[in-house]
Design goal:
Helices cover about 40% and strands about 15% of the residues. The chain is built from 5 helices and 11 strands, in the order H-E-E-E-E-E-E-E-E-E-E-E-H-H-H-H. The strands form 2 sheets. Strands 1, 2, 3, 4, 5, 6, 7, 8 and 11 form a 9-stranded antiparallel β-sheet that branches. The protein has a two-stranded antiparallel sheet with strand order 9-10. The longest helix is centred in the C-terminal third of the chain and has 36 residues.
Amino acid sequence: MSPWSSWSPWARRSVRAFPYLLSGIAITLFMAWGLPLLLASRGIGPTTVQATVWQRTQRTPAAPDDNRFHADPYIELRRAAFSDWYLAYPSRSTTAGGESEWPTGSLAQLDHTSAKTPGARRHHPPGSVVTAPTAEQSSSFARIDTGLAGWPFRAFASEAWYRASASEPLGYEPLPEFRWNVHLGEILGQQALVPLRPVLHGIALDVLFWATVSWFVIALPSAIRRRRREKYGRCGNCGYAMGAHDVKRPERCPECGAAFARDPLGFAHAPEMHFQNAYAWLILVSSLDIMLTWKILDRGGMEVNPLASLVIDAWGMQGAIAFKFALMMWVIVVCEFLARLRRGAGVFLAYAAVIVSASPVAWSLFLLASNEFFPHVLE
C-alpha cells in the first residue's frame, strides 16, 4: 500500500490543485506587473486613453469654455484594458481652516458631449483609490494619482503624490513622490511603475479566475478522456482498460475476472476509428479529384470514367460531388466493419481506396500540366 493511498480524499485533491494555484498566482502577477509594462513600452497605456472627469458637485459652468468647474474637487479617470489611473485634484480655494477640499464621497460624471455639463450619473471611487490625504497634509499636496493594475480584476495599486508649489504653472511639482511601487523610469511619456500595494479581494478573485482557467486548459481535457475510457470499460479492481478499437464490452474483466458494472448508456459509446490517417488521405485525394475534374471539364475536356460521366450528365457537378463523398463514406464504413472481423482486410481496403482515388488525381494533374504546353491534349 503506497503512502499516497493512505491520504484522505481532501488532502489528495489539495495536492492536485496546488500546481493550478501556483499557475493562478503567476498569471495574476504577470497581468498586474508584466503586461502593463510591455504595453507601456509599445506606447499603449492609460495616458493614451481619453479621460473621464468625476466632479464633486453638479454646478454648471457659465459658458462651454468656462474652466471654473476646476475650482471644485474632481477626479480624472483614465481606464485601460489592464490598468486604470485615478487622478484626484483638490479645490483651488481652501476652507476657513486652510485645508483644501478633496473629491470624496459621491461624484457626478461630466458629459463632454454637452458643453461639459455634469451628467446625472454618480460614482464612488473604489476603496483602494486614494482621493484625499490626511487633514495635516491636505494643503501640502495638489494632486494624488492612484494606479490600479490587474485583469480581470484590479489586484495591485500604486500611488504618486504631487506636492503643491506656487511657483509651478500647474500648481504642483512635476516629479511626484512614488509610494507603494517600484519606479522604473519613464517610457514614451508614461511612468513605468510596478504596483506593490495589494488589493486583497482583487488578488483573491484573479488567482481563483486564472487557476480555474489553468485547470480548464490542462486538466479538463485529460479528465474528460479518462472519464470516457472509464465509462467504456475500465476495471475498477485491477485498472484494466479495453482497447480503443474494441466494440463489445465484455461482462467480466479479461485481466482479473471481476464483473463489470452494467452501463445503461453502453449503446451510445463508439470506439475510435481504426485507420484515421488513411481516411484523412482518402478525403484529401477525393476532394482533389472533384476539383481537378471540374477544372478539366471547364477547359473543354471530357470525363472518361463512364459511371462518373453518367452521374455528371444526370445531376451535374453538384450530383458528382454528392456521389463522390457518398462513395467515400461507404468505403470508410466497410473498412471499419472489416477491421472488426479481420484487421488485415480492413487495412488493405483502406489503403487500396487511397491509391485508387489518387490515380485519377495524378492523371488529371498530368493532363493539366500537358495542356499548358500542348493546348489540344484535353480535346
